[in-house]
Fold:
Amino acid sequence: MKRILFVLAVLFSISTFAQTAAEKEKVKSLMQDEKSVKDYVLTNAQVLYVSVSDNGSNRDGLASYFCDRMKELRIKVFKVKVVKYGSQKDSKRDNAYGVKLGECQCQ
Structure:
């Protein structure tokens, strides 16, 4: 019985890893197609950080767009934060990822 449970646990972890790798590939493909995206990070907490150049405008709409795209791709994301590219060390940064330009709570 313990052997069966062990095998099931291993198979489950392998399938979870494969799904995560597939999701990462989908996100990578999406971000490569978006000309405004300079960099991105999808955290383990399912928050997507998207780095873009700051043109002075609010980027809540862009964050909402990425929430919608993640939903279309069936990738669970709780929140999208759009941050200023290259602002990780800026004194006005929101967190370690940089200065927040926009945000959307994904549903």
Summary: The longest strand covers residues 37-42. Residues 4-19 have pLDDT under 50 and may be disordered. DSSP finds two helices and four strands in the chain.
